[in-house]
Amino acid sequence: MIPLTHSLIIAALLFSLGLLIILLRRELLFILMGLEVMFNGAALTAVAAGQYWNNADGQVLTIFLMVVTAAELAVALILVWLAYEHFKVTQIDMLTQLKDDTRGEPP
Class assignment of domain 27-90? Predict the structure, then answer.
């Protein structure tokens, strides 16, 4: 049996790596990959806690988290695809046309 501390250290490393990817990369697809790595770190934490307390709650939570993550990823990939079709760019900094430039002025 793997000790709880080892699992939590690996989960923290996964979560930190995902956060680092999100903060350093400016491509939409890399940001989505960073979110997936962060979700995997959270899922590993749930599984490790479930194993430590000898119940299946962690595995059930992980299955639920993976279903929600798959739905989120499907919607996000469609949005990335539509943003690329419309603006021909996937860089976050270049998608400034999505901002509201009215600055409170009436139409």
Answer: mainly alpha
